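Reading a protein record of the kind used here takes little practice once its layout is understood. The reader may check this reading against the record printed directly beneath this paragraph.
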Amino acid sequence: MKRTLLIATAALLLLAASSCQKDGVYNPKKKISKIVYSGEGLSMQGSYRELWKWDGNKLVSRAILYCPPDTTYLYTYSYDGKRLASIIYKDFLNDHYCKTDFTYDGKYLQQADYYVRGILRSTAKFTQTDGKITAIDFIYLNLPDGSKGSFDNNLMLDMLMPLDLQQNEACQQLKANSKSGELIFKVSITWDGNNISKMVWDYDGYIKTNEFTYDNKRNPFCGLGVSWLNDLNEDYYLLGSTFKVFDKNNILASKYQDINRNTTESVTYTYTYKGDYPTSCIVKIASDSGTTSYEYEYLN
């Protein structure tokens, strides 16, 4: 697979919209059992499957399977009552282990702490306004060996830094000049009813924006929110997997603008539905000759 060096919207994975359920609770009316991904463009090539396991109304695990059909990645979810408390991620190919713990203030998500083999690496702090997340600060901490905050692409919170921003020379210079060793990346969110209409990313004046439009159908991922935090599929942030966790409806189009570089990119989403829920989605990035498709199966 080839990484797409465009603005990453993976920070969206953290959001749990109050329009769906309270933060940390994901109990959709229709529960996904399987997702099949396939792609033919530069943004994604090949295919894989996700198998979702439920225990009543709780999502227990998501297994990611490539060919051969063995579990490659596994996300396991733990709860405090009905609310998500932590996620454990295992990469069986590289023997990699991570964990994310969640903290709530009353009914609202307050903080997410990300650990690699027991060492705190990153923290996300959330600002709530009228029951919706309107800002996120990502803090990349000093590492035990004295090095500065990490921009590793393939780690849970670390991958929330946009990939092109990670590789930008100015960003690398900011990292090198950091006196405290802590890196802070800010995201602000604007809502239109129960859907996010705009996001602004700001890293010390390096700014990008995302704008979205939606259909009027039900989004089966709504409320998954923090449960999707550990998604390592940063290759697909433009392709739909990272857009489905917070909005009441399904995204039809998205537009990205790099303010500093004066560049734009757009993506369109075409669905088939059964009743009010999507059963498939075809995603087209304007600058990519290919497409990516998603097929959804439900328990009920």
